[in-house]
Recover the amino acids of this structure.
């Protein structure tokens, strides 16, 4: 109707629409026959308003583009992930902690953007079956051994697992046992070992590991560092003096011969000389690690979704365009209070991520102390293993304080047992939006739900009454922000960056480290931005520096000529 009025009075196209506040929601009534309602809802935001008036071929082209680029992300790994996730075979350990996550509907949801790339297997998202009681008890003993504050009398260990590490190891070992138990004739093509025969004693035998490594290679087509990490679990549990498996020879009692994998003679040898068998396997696994490291390939390049940002002269400046796009499409608070609150939350997620460079966990668990209230003491935060954003009257700004123990690399030389403390800069209306979020928008998101105390809270709905983000929902929230505001859509004109793909919150650390590398050439300064060491930065981000070294040197040398 507005278009008709514009044509009647010869006004520019879009004249009235430009004067309307953006509702921050998609149009409705699209002709998307053959597409289920769930996918239709995800797709609607990314379709042009004149979608129904376009030709059939054009509509097909747009739908294909949205599915490939926006919804799934068009990387080889995403395509592999979509295919592999349909296969169900992993073993679940319901009596053992999964890092605070309770499996839902037989599934454990795990994101795929960890900073070191260890969560790079879509099988972690597969359906699972419960472990038999004996195997579950063995897993519980291993987790207790590696996570308890004090080692049990008579045992030795080298290092402990943090909560997230323990969750990772449980899941990865569950995949291995699940592959062994899966049917040979099924889609998974496992080995068909009866579930009742599964025991950690099997992990002492080279045949088991060689089959599993080759099975993984056949599924993916090549070896990756994932297999190396699995072998390192085997090395750790069979290590002399401190290996958990090495200190539990009784686990051999449940081991039975498996045709093609374990012979009776191998079991007899292990029974006669347990420590000798452990030493032999440890040597075998060490050789396998070296062999796989030589030929391992990268399947999931963590930088691929944000490559247009990292390749720009100013990665932070490029990524900042997403926050500007959020403000450009900000809905009117009076007419659309909840969409406005969600937009402000999205804006602050990205802004705080860019200023703080925190890992997902630390950003997600950041507590809030509003103005006028007494902030939590450092001791309380250490006990909670969380940080806090609070108003500092002394410093006149919003301060973020996070105890060192809350970080994954708490004992890194970066911290020196001192907390992370930073006053956020009041740049480009950051304080204005923080104050508005704390005073107004956060309550709109919470509605009547109990307040978890964290700075970022979910939108509470009738189907989702839990306000606190978990590792999966926070990742999905960030990914949704990128899909809506980050990826440039040539069909709607919305989106900030051409060539960007969906990604999670960890990639903002890549943006910060790469930006400082490009500007200074210093691994040490880049490490300060992401609370890590120069060695780690050199290892993960050095690939972005070579092409900028000459430019950095030229910038310094050119000053001589400019002065003349």
């Amino acid at each position: 109707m507005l278009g008709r009025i514009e044509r009647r009075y010869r006004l520019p196209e879009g004249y009235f629409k430009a004067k309307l506040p953006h509702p921050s929601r998609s149009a409705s009534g699209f002709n998307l026959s053959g597409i289920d309602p769930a996918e239709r809802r995800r797709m609607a935001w990314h379709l042009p308003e004149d979608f129904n008036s376009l030709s059939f071929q054009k509509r097909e082209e747009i739908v294909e583009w949205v599915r490939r680029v926006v919804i799934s992300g068009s990387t080889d790994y995403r395509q592999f992930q979509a295919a592999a996730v349909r296969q169900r075979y992993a073993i679940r350990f319901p009596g053992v902690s999964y890092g605070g996550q309770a499996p839902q509907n037989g599934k454990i949801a795990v994101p795929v953007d960890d900073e070191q790339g260890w969560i790079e297997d879509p099988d972690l998202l597969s359906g699972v079956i419960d472990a038999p009681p004996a195997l579950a008890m063995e897993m519980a003993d291993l987790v207790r051994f590696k996570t308890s504050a004090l080692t049990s009398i008579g045992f030795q260990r080298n290092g402990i697992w943090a909560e997230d590490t323990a969750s990772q190891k449980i899941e990865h070992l569950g995949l291995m046992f699940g592959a062994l138990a899966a049917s040979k004739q099924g889609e998974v093509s496992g080995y068909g070992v009866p579930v009742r025969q599964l025991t950690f004693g099997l992990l002492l035998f080279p045949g088991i590991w060689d089959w599993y490594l080759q099975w993984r290679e056949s599924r993916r087509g090549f070896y990756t560092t994932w297999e190396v990490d699995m072998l390192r679990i085997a090395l750790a549990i069979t290590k002399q003096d401190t290996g958990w498996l090495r200190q539990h020879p009784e686990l051999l009692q449940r081991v039975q011969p498996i045709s093609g994998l374990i012979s009776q003679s191998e079991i007899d040898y292990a029974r006669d000389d347990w420590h000798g068998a452990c030493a032999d396997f440890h040597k075998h696994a060490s050789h396998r690690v070296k062999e796989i490291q030589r030929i391992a390939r990268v399947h999931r390049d963590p930088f691929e979704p944000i490559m247009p940002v990292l390749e720009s002269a100013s990665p932070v400046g490029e990524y900042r365009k997403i926050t500007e796009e959020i403000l450009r499409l900000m809905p009117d608070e009076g007419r659309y209070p909840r969409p406005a609150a969600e937009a402000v939350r999205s804006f602050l997620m990205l802004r705080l991520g860019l200023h703080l460079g925190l890992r997902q966990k630390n950003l997600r668990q950041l507590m809030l102390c509003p103005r006028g209230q007494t902030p939590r003491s450092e001791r309380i935060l250490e006990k909670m293993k969380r940080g806090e954003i609070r108003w500092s009257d002394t410093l006149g700004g919003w301060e973020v304080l996070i105890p060192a123990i809350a970080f994954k690399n708490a004992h890194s030389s970066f911290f020196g047992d001192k907390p992370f403390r930073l006053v956020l800069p009041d740049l480009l209306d950051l304080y204005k939006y923080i104050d508005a979020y704390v005073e107004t928008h956060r309550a709109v998101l919470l509605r009547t739900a109990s307040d978890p105390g964290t700075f970022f809270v979910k939108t509470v709905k009738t189907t989702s009454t839990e306000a606190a983000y978990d590792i999966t929902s926070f990742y999905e929230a960030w990914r949704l922000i990128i899909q809506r505001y980050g990826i440039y859509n040539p069909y709607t004109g919305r989106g900030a960056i051409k060539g960007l793909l969906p990604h999670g919150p960890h990639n903002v650390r890549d943006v910060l480290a790469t930006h400082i590398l490009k500007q200074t050439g210093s691994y040490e300064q880049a490490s300060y931005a992401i609370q890590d060491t120069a060695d780690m930065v050199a290892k993960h981000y050095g690939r972005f520096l070579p092409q900028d070294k000459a430019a950095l040197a030229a910038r310094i040398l050119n000053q001589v000529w400019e002065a003349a």
Residues 274-295 form the longest helix (22 residues). Confidence is low (pLDDT under 50) at residues 98-127.
